[in-house]
Input
Amino acid sequence: MASGPGLLHPLPTLYTRRCNAPGSRAWKDFMLAVIRAFAKSWVAAVLIGLLIVSFAVFGVSDVFRTRAKNEVVHAGSRVITPAEFRTEWDRAKQNVEQQSGQQISNELAVENRLDVRVLEMLADREAMAALIDKIGIRPADALVTREIQQIPAFFDPISGRFDKRLYQEALGRANLTPARFERSVRDDIAQAHLASGVVDGLRPPRAYGALAVIFAQEARDVSVFAVGPAAVTPPSPPTDAQLTEFMKANSERLMRPEFRVLSVVRFSSAQFAGQVKVTEADIRKQFDFRKDSLNRPETRSLVQIPAKDANSARGLADRLGKGEDAAAVARSAGVDPVLYADKPRTAVVDAKVGEAAFGMASGEVRVVQGDLGLAVVKVTGITPGRVVTLEEARPMLEAEARKTVAAEKVYEISQAYDDAHAGGANLDEAAAKAGVPVTTLGPVAEQGFDPTGRPVTGLSARLVQTAFRLPEGGESQIEDEGQGESFVVRVDKIIPRALPPLAEIRQPLARAWMSQEMARRLRAKADELAGRVRKGEDLAAVAASIGARPERIPGLTRQGAGQGGPLSQEGFAQAFSAGKGGVFVAQAANAFALVVGKVDAITPPAVADNARAVEQVRPQLGMTLFEEIGARMPRYARAILKVRTDPALARQTLGVEPPKTDGAKDGAAKGGKEAAGK
Output
């Protein structure tokens, strides 16, 4: 019998843990321990001292300026207003809803301290940006503009060029202003420049590299034997009383979700697209509206090399004109060439360079005085533009016109339904007057499946979310789903959450109980055998007492994760956690069994013979050091700038009361404003 949704899996998983291989959690923990040790050394003290001196030189003024009452975050010269906080809040809450698959209220989100997390994130971000600005890292306006104009989301899909209207519309949908977005881009560029400078200057001591090599290449000899089902007495089939108790213990995992039976009325342009007729006038109207976007502009490929002065520009132009490689010519001048491959004129960042390039012949070279400086330009290819005729675009235009007419038809029908419903008709009566069918769906769970676990057809995420916000008997208004689709839904019946009857899930539940009981007996037996080995009995003799034979795994290293034979990831980790002579119990690698193991010997590597390995690991240590410094920098920035946050104003912006929590957990619960640097 197929198990329904939420049924307890019949094979419980034994406890597992990640191994200590490079890249694993344990490896990262070791690296962090090394870095933290470095942070306490005189080298780190000098590094941090230099940072403090630089901040003192560049100044951290204005930190004692009185805050305006409408500042949720104040960090030096940077502030977050309530409106900006609300935008960031909406984005964070939407991410949580997407991950959980359901909508959450502001009250529930605040109860789970999402407002605190958003506030802390904003304080960290603004503090870092303000501090970087204070020390003088400020990207030029031209660099910010060029970065924005290279973002594909702002390109017209027809012309393939940056479209200012699309740019503004995209920011509007995200509830961002151009100034706010451009400041964010500027911050990202500044932080990237700071990061590259810090990374280039980090070089951990060789002693740290040696420690990492010792950690990675330490070898261990391990002996293990398996404890399988044959080593224990198999459990008898469970009684009804045992199964009932098992159900209670696992009620949340076995509980069936709430189901609902729905009546749905759909208004869809797809229903009428094949029925409507379009006229030549409809097609002509569509063509006149779209012809500018249908036409393909002329595009060109060109090379642009920045020049310091007129003399060097003439020299570069002469070499390009003779056919020398553009990259080599630019390199000789100590610059990088700017390449445009098959781009329209509007894609060229420097408008004057673009104007000149689109007036040149293919292969021609010119020296151009652009808005951003002197440049040598060579056109390497020209693709003529093309004007699309009505006949060429007729199939597409006819389809679009048909869709437009169908959408108008759907609007008329939905208006007829809405008028009837507003006049007192229920869903069935209003649908009959509008001439649209009523469809019954369900029972359906909030996740979109039926009681057997199969997806219910005819649903959308918006429809299900709407239906599960209504009470039994409740009817929604017309809900627009976009793309010419809308719907009305009524909840006909609500089937509450409940445990399934024992008779219905007896067999899979009994298998799960038997599996769990067997796992319990195996663990007890393995612990007993391991205890005997710890007391001094020979491991081979203990293994023989259950008819098993030990297996020896020589030369096991952390770099050899996955090559431990019968050892699982958990066993691998325990083998490197125990000392010499240590005994452990872990899950077997590829069987429903446990292993009892013992560390026979530990052999450290000869570091002197691994000089190359020491040097190879130092860059990785440097990156770990950078990540550790990067994680601590926002806290330092908040302290040095005396960043202030206003949790009460943040919650007031959301229209919710502060959660009733222990005052020690959240200073805002006491009604006060908090200093982030404490």
In short: The CA atoms of residues 43 and 205 lie 10 Å apart.
